[in-house]
User: What shape does this take?
Amino acid sequence: MQLRVADPNAGLGPNQFYEAFWQNAVTGSDQLRQRMRFALSQIFVISLVDPNIDIRGAASYYDMLGANALGNYRTLLEQVTLHPMMGVYLTHLANQKEDTAGTRSPDENYAREVMQLMSIGLFMLNPDGTKQLDTSGQPIPTYTQDDISGLARVFTGLSWYAPTPTNNTFFGGNRNADATIRPMIFYNNYHSTSQKRFLGTTIPASATVDIAGDLRIALDTIFNHPNVGPFMAQRLIQQFVTSNPSLAYVRCVATVFNNNGSGVRGDLAAVIRAVLTDSEARNIGVVSSASFGKLREPVIRLANWMRAFGATSQSGNWLMGSTSANTSLSQAPLTSPSVFNFWRPGYVPPSTQLGAQNLQAPEFQVVDEVTVADYLNTMQNAVNAGVGSGNDIRSAYTAEIAIANDPVALVDRVNKLLVYGQLSAISQQRINEAVTGVAIPATGTQAQIDAARLNRAKLAVFLAMASPEYLALR
Amino acid sequence: MSEEFSRRHFMRCASALGLVGQAGLPFALQLAAMNGAAAQTTSDYKALVCIFLFGGNDANNMVLATDTDTWDRYWLARNTGTNPISLMPVGTAATPVGSVNAVTGRVVTSRADPAAWGGVLPIVPRTANPIPAGTNATARTFALHPMLAPLRPIFSANRLAVMANVGTLVTPTTKAQYNARSVPLPKNLYSHNDQQSIWQAGSIEGAQRGWGGLMADAMYSMNGQNSVFTAVSAAGNAVFMAGQNVVQYQISTGALPSIRVNGAVASSLFGSTAAPARLRSMIRDISSPSLFASDHAGVVTRSMDFADALNAAYGMPAATSVPAPPVFTNPISGGTEANPLASQLQAVAKMIASNMVLGMRRQVFFVSLGGWDSHDFQNTAQPNLLAKVAHGMSYFDGVLGNLNGVNMRNTVTTFTASDFSRTFSTNGDGTDHAWGAHHFVMGGALNGGDVYGQFPTLGNDRTGFNNPNMAGNALIPTMSVDQYAATMGRWFGVSDANLSGIFPNLRNFTPNTVAFV
Assistant: This one.
């Protein structure tokens, strides 16, 4: 991102991250990579909500996710682990070994969440993503508190990059200008040399410090855990295709994670190809079932609008701010309320038909009486005048205006662009009637005719984005 | 919470509460008829307000035992590391930045140092708390975090009680039983999302009915036509609020509680008078073959049906008389900032005030404050958060004391909840996930000014000291969430039979409630 090469002393705020995000999201020629890193940013979560996160560092973290988005999971896991912004966010930066008095223990935050949220989850999984059960029918935990305490010792002695590391730089003093964007380095004085037991692996107590060796063993152990395939398969299918994949679908993707066909484990390009080309993602019979699909994410909806209708930045700088407030989209990139993301993959919405069938619907965690109204009002404004500071990002609807005299053609166009032709007959009829309600003056001035056509275009776009077939991706 | 939620239940619920297809008109008319009427009866109104502290509050620094034996073990565990998180003893004067603190001998370099806040604030319970096994204390004395000063007068006025060592439990659990795993334990201990879910709904993530919603189920018929407002959240979706019949209703903390869909209520949209009606039909269309689309339309429908009526209620004097919270100052930075908890409590107070008009008799509310996961920088984050809790709760207590001229304190019981407490010892500048925690309950109906439950023996195991209340670095709860919750449920009017259904494990605990109310 531009931020990475920007003057490190320049005053940066969250808006500069959002500006870069939206510019990339809309104009990037590598859309799969953009979507993949946005998905990964919701699994390997850091958040601008944390006041200790540096904006340039966050941009570098997002760059790192992009660089690894179609690479290998093992490399991604290592670069996430060593990124100083993850170190700040999950607090293993400047994490010290236990003290000899036996009163202070290493920080357990990253050790816990890297297992629960980024790799293996809480329960032993079958290759199809179902939980393994013990002889009494209970799910089997993947780890205990003792595993976390053991793994926490591995993540000690990591802190800020410095050309000349000292105790002072370990604790954040004399900060190098690039410390927030360069991988954390090893400070041997602060690394635990006692025994480290986790997930069936034991690193014996040692008289010498070997941070790189300990990390390699720990990350290899996590990477090779049989849960990672089904875990990542479920997460990525939920992000891209459907909230409730079949067991066969999960198994197919997990199998590719385990081996891309050339004996390589963790090939994310192969994994996302498997996610998107699985018959379940493409078979019209499956796709039309009541429980298939997902609620589109609010950020994706706004990006859909910008891309479908050629929105451009008036200033050239894509002046977007946060869209986190429930008066906006209840979601902004890299701005989740906690490491648990905007919503949980296992969220089952109470008091709904989905809930009655015990179906997951992660994005419903931010759907309530207030947010549904605010989404519609936000999009009405965006479609009408644009979004961002001074409505910097706008569409001219040139192509839509050109066919606005023909409501059927106009509806057909927004149907194809936004809904993949899935608008129901009744939705098409409603949009058509609303659009037709704008009379094109037969004898008016050109300006009056142009205004009417523009109104028709905006109506068609807005109503399509409010339609049930758009909101529910299938 | 263990029962399966059925489609039939949903449909019954839908018809009972007007969730699907009911026009808003009759409700609005009823409201209009009541406008100005002397409907301000406060008899038999009760509300429960849950303040959820997301992230896991370090309750070890919220309520402290100050007897010498306990304090020494506390000091040993926490007066260490790069940024010690040990609070100063009772009576310590605040040390200005730049001066040496007499207790630690260290120079105070910033406001993010407990020495800058002064000593913990003593509270004197009305009754002596028993001395637990394992401690050499001869009497138990207590104090609050220095940032909780606004809560002290409420405690002294017997409207605030401390609940000691509350946590998720299946059955009473001793240290030996925990270590041997010889009794069933709550699943996924120490995991944020799962412990939040167990606190709110008795089972791990994926739970669909919480005890707030189930208590509301038992009482909502008292609310007549307006029962859609039985369970109201000002803090987003919470499984706590989901009942079998009762569905959570979300309100905004903005000027008005409900947000109107502008395009759907306008007379014309983008120059088309035909458009608003088409938009309305489209966004309320629950007939979509996709459950995701249909359920979304259900929420839109509920939002639109009640928005105007609820906004109108907020326009009446009872609600408009609720004052805004006073300005909040961050005690560490010294700057003013928003206190979202106070804003949410203001919205709740307006709802309660509106009910004098709406005729509601039982309500459950949900508000929250996040940011408690203090693995590091605990001395920066936690004091500010505790100050927000004290600021918000004391504001709410004051508002309820004079709600449009009526003292409503006896009718509203407010309580805290959180994922878990945190490790007793420090990791250098913060704490990690643990289990049992102390909590606050506030209200005029309480036998307040006291500490309930057994305040535990504190301190990590060492040679010659085996703490019966702690497993590793975590307190083993001695009061279950079920006991804590059922006590409030009984006050709320939920029958013992219903409480047994809501809390299937309650029968494992004797007594099954606590005498705080």
About this structure: Residues 294-473 of chain A form one domain. The first helix of chain A runs from residue 2 to 5.
